[in-house]
Specification:
This protein is of the alpha/beta class and 562 residues long. It has 15 helices and 28 strands. It has an eight-stranded mixed sheet with strand order 4-3-5-2-6-7-1-10.
């Protein structure tokens, strides 16, 4: 039996809550390597074991299908006889099981054969097109003909498409994000590996590349990146920067480019494997096994190892292809998020200007597809040591280089970003929604004090959190008491669990806006002020003199959430 991490449990509960309270379809946003398959497997287990539902799990690559089936057997071993796989690539065509894990390419025209489905779970759901036909939309339309009450649950790390913007909307297959947790938060909690980055000393000039369907034309990208001088320079840097690293995954711009990179590394005494879409399965499986085991240090690929590839030992990712797609950029960098024994961080070597183009991976900037303007770069490169750092630094934190003052025409209004390291900025944001959950610190002992995590939604995919420490002592408890008394006429709770119960029951005043303090060059911002409504006068049903009523917030076993 697998025990869910706190944020995975929150994600599962958010899906159930959404399905009970709405009649459309939710999306869960979890970073790469955060364990989406555990969430999927838990939903499947509950839907079949508790509510006798029928579930279809959809993915587009066999690695994701294998992961989903494997986690299902770990999470719900008692349901092994009810789990089937429908995938031509895996040589299986189960269609009558209670849980069917299916490759979209194999089933998109077979809705009638699959029969009645209650929930369709789509992994990597950003691949669902916003309109038109496509495999996902064809299948889901067919399933709705069989069961008009079909609900779709999407999971993705990147809830946007470059060509059309957010994947959730009133007219889309997925209608709203019901739960989201960020990269930065999971790194701080110790669930994801920290990343560090360097830009290549010699970079390709992408200014002459043409764009088709929102992305650079592939043939032009390969021709640009496959120049001998650039390949040799990049390979020298890769070898130099990975002398103390174990496993380097290289993203090349094309097949010939990857072969050129591998040959150049071999000429430097470094063995490098290559994996392409047309690689024979036996060769591909052998190379991936060697890479995962650590016996092969360098592995170059082209459009193959972006999703579904799990190799926790990767401690360097080299980007030898520029991309305009923030999703592809995220998926490439995300190969280094997984934790591994002895791995302090993962180094990102960027030879395509992607970090400067898209921003830090924990704060990717996406743009309105109807406009061409990308705004000011969110990061900059140190000319002395090639570190890619936040644009707010006046001095490089890695080598001490002092950046010269910028001279630019003034804008019509003053910006809110600090220009000097240490400059403080206070910004007030209207609050669109608030969620309250119990927060448990990673690897803390069972008797360690917990806190209440308050997450304010400030816009689409924009959140700010604060932690209220009811179970702590001293100053932290005093601050929690003051925080509660400003919002409620009920007694201050003694536990985070009681506080979350009362908050979710309506015991707290509405938060209309918050003021956030940020410091240029520092990673995290703080909530320093709140605009509140009136504290509620009367207890609502489900309260009992400030104490939770037993079972008031629990979901009965026989309650069907879909």
């Amino acid at each position: 039996m697998i025990c869910l991490r706190p944020y995975q449990r929150e994600a599962v509960d958010a899906v159930y809550r959404y399905l009970r309270e709405h009649d459309d379809s939710p999306c869960v946003v979890l970073p790469t390597a955060s364990g989406k398959t555990h969430v999927i497997a838990t939903i499947c287990r509950d839907a079949v074991g508790q509510w006798a539902g029928r579930i279809l799990v959809l993915a587009h690559v066999k690695e994701l299908l294998e992961q989903a089936a494997d986690k299902l057997h770990q999470v719900a071993p008692e349901l092994w006889h009810q789990i089937g796989v429908y995938s031509a690539g895996l040589g299986s065509r189960d269609k009558d099981k209670a849980i069917v894990v299916a490759g979209i390419q194999s089933v998109y025209r077979r809705a009638a054969e699959l029969g009645h489905v209650d929930i369709a779970i789509v992994d990597e759901s950003h691949l669902i097109p916003p309109e038109g036909d496509g495999m996902y939309r064809t299948l889901l339309a067919g399933l709705k003909e069989v069961n008009p009450r079909l609900r779709v649950v999407g999971l993705t790390a990147t809830p946007f498409r470059m060509s059309s913007g957010p994947i959730c909307g009133p007219e889309n297959i997925l209608n709203a994000v019901c739960y989201e947790v960020g990269v930065k938060e999971l790194i701080v909690q110790g669930y994801l590996c920290p990343l560090v980055s360097k830009a290549g000393k010699e970079k390709a000039d992408t200014g002459g590349l043409h764009v088709r369907a929102g992305e650079y034309i592939a043939a032009e990208v390969e021709a640009l990146m496959d120049k001998s001088g650039l390949v040799e320079s990049a390979c020298r840097e890769i070898v130099e920067h990975t002398s103390d690293r174990k496993s380097c995954l290289i993203f090349a711009s094309g097949v010939e480019h990857a072969r050129h990179v591998a040959a150049t590394l071999e000429g430097m005494g470094q063995r490098c494997g290559t994996v392409f879409g047309e690689s024979a399965d036996a060769d591909r499986d052998r190379l991936l096994a060697e890479f995962r085991s650590g016996s092969l240090k360098y592995l170059a690929n082209v459009n193959v190892l972006t999703t579904g590839f799990d190799a926790p030992n990767i401690d360097c990712v080299a980007l030898l292809r520029p991309t305009l797609s923030p999703g592809l950029y995220y998926q490439m960098v995300g190969r280094g998020f997984r934790l591994c024994e002895g791995k302090r961080n993962c180094l990102i070597l960027d030879f395509g200007g992607n970090i400067l183009r898209h921003g830090p991976v924990d704060a990717i900037r996406t743009h309105d597809p109807k406009t061409c303007s990308g705004g000011e770069a969110p990061a900059k490169e140190c000319p002395q040591c090639q570190s890619v750092i936040h644009a707010g630094y006046a001095k490089c934190p890695d080598c001490g280089y002092a950046f010269p003052p910028r001279e630019v025409p003034h804008e019509a209004s003053a910006g809110s970003e600090g220009i000097l390291s240490g400059q403080v900025t206070l910004t007030t944001h209207p609050v669109e929604g608030v969620t309250y959950t119990v927060h448990v610190k990673r690897d803390a002992p069972e008797d360690a004090p917990r806190s209440m995590r308050v997450e304010y939604q400030l816009g689409w995919s924009k959140y700010q959190s604060e932690w209220i420490c009811f179970e702590h002592a001293g100053y932290a408890r005093h601050k929690a008491e003051e925080w509660w008394k400003r919002r409620s006429k009920l007694p201050v709770p003694d536990s985070a669990e009681d506080a979350v119960f009362l908050a979710n029951s309506g015991a707290l005043a509405e938060t209309k806006s918050i003021t956030v303090r940020s410091v240029a060059g520092e990673k995290y911002a703080q909530v320093v002020g709140h605009e509140l409504g009136e504290a509620p006068e009367c207890p609502e049903p489900g309260w009992n003199d400030g104490e939770p009523v037993e079972g008031a917030c629990a979901t009965a076993d026989d309650e069907i959430p879909f």
